[in-house]
Design a protein that fits this description.
Elements (H helix, E strand, L loop, with lengths): L5 E8 L9 E5 L6 E9 L6 E7 L4 E8 L3 E4 L10 E6 L6 E5 L7 E6 L3 E4 L10 E8 L5 E8 L6 E6 L3 E4 L6 E5 L6 E5 L2 E5 L5 E6 L1 E5 L5 E8 L2 E8 L3 E4 L8 E8 L5 E8 L2 E8 L3 E4 H7 L12 E5 L6 E4 L3 E4 L10 E8 L12
Antiparallel strand pairs: 1-2, 1-30, 3-4, 4-5, 5-6, 7-8, 8-9, 9-10, 11-12, 12-13, 13-14, 15-16, 16-17, 17-18, 19-20, 20-21, 21-22, 23-24, 24-25, 25-26, 27-28, 28-29
Length: 364
């Protein structure tokens, strides 16, 4: 297959009274066997990306890390790992990566990776004798708390888990639960249990906030985002400890905000998926402007998107709110510097032209 490079666009969406500087550069995969790059999570400042890439020399997907200095790096395989790996989460400082590694003999197993230890498999539940598959979704800043979900090969519903270095692998809920994000200090875990979105505290107690699911949490635990159902329709929301549930809306009415996947540390910015006529779209929501189509923001900055470049999925957002990962026939990355005002946005966009469209993994 012909190698294809990934492209990065830098753009600013600013008030008309401000000057906007634009830059364009690429994440070059030449010289690497890794192609079909997909980005699933970002470090706190958006400078490090982790996800899945296809290694054509091995003929299988591998977990990778990307930095501007080092490009794409295969994170390797755990001892006994002989098949594909996926990186789904990264700590704020970029030192710890978590995900899932598949083996021919052991099925999907959650892993923890650091530069010093390499990729290490997490233990199973104490009463699991090889019947469950494990997916690690997020990790605390010190790498000592990892959350995710496990499911039974026989078709049983998912079960949320939290692993810590001190307590090992622990169930957080019963069948039908999943843990999808964790605060940097590991104190709060968000996800769903029994059809309800909510959070687990350090003691493992679950607090429901709304029907549906929770996908992301701010660093201090004040804000949670996810999706709920109203009159049989999916709806994105932002929950805060002060104000409860707030539905995320497009003030123009052009988009139906169907889910929220990530929130900035201060709660001002949310990204997620929306419906747009017969197409799907992704949005950036803020407290001033409401939900806005990210594709339209790109074009407003002076870039022309091809007609078939329908941006239909958002992958992640950095905690400072300035880096966004989305999907369209591969991966686009948007990032920038600290936003001083609600109406000022700095974004970098990158596209990997290979790879099939797929829904974000966090759909347990």
């Amino acid at each position: 297959m012909k190698p294809t490079s990934s492209f990065i666009f830098m753009l600013l969406v600013l008030p008309a009274t401000l000057q906007a500087d634009y830059a364009f550069f690429s994440i070059n995969t030449e010289g690497s066997d890794l192609r079909a790059v997909k980005g699933y999570d970002l470090s706190a400042n958006g400078s490090i990306v982790v996800g899945q890439a296809h290694d054509y020399s091995l003929g299988r997907p591998v977990a990778y890390m990307w930095t501007a200095a080092n490009g794409l790096t295969d994170l390797g395989r755990p001892s006994g790992g002989d098949y594909e790996s996926y990186a789904y989460g990264i700590s704020d400082d970029g030192t710890t990566v978590v995900g899932t590694s598949y083996t021919h003999t052991d099925g999907p197993r959650a892993f923890r990776w650091t530069a010093s230890t390499g990729m290490q498999l997490l233990p199973r539940f104490s009463n699991d004798f090889g019947n469950m598959e494990y997916f690690a979704e997020a990790v605390s800043d010190n790498g000592e708390a990892i959350v995710g979900w496990a499911s039974d090969f026989s078709g049983g519903g998912p079960v949320a888990f939290r692993w810590t270095a001190a307590d090992g692998m622990q169930r957080l809920g019963t069948s039908g639960s999943a843990a999808l994000d964790v605060t940097p200090d590991g104190a709060f875990v968000v996800g769903r249990s029994g059809g309800q979105a909510g959070y687990w505290d350090a003691a493992g107690d679950f607090t429901a906030i709304v029907n549906g699911g929770a996908e992301g949490i701010s660093a201090d635990g004040r804000f949670i985002v996810g999706r709920t159902t109203i009159d049989s329709s999916r709806q994105g929301y932002r929950w805060s400890r002060e104000d409860g549930v707030e539905l995320l809306l497009d003030p123009t009415g052009a988009m139906e905000v169907q889910g929220a996947y990530a929130v900035s540390d201060d709660g001002r910015f949310v990204v997620g998926a929306s419906g747009l006529l017969d197409e799907s779209a992704v949005y950036l929501w803020d407290e001033v402007n409401g939900a806005r189509n990210i594709g339209e923001l790109i074009e407003a900055a002076g870039f022309t998107l091809e007609p078939d470049w329908i941006i239909d999925e958002v992958w992640s957002m950095s905690e400072d709110g300035n880096t966004i990962a989305i999907s369209n026939q591969g991966v686009w990355l948007f990032s920038g510097y600290t936003i001083p005002e609600p109406r000022v946005y700095a974004l970098i966009a990158g596209l990997s032209a290979l790879g099939l469209l797929r829904w974000r993994h966090k759909r347990a």
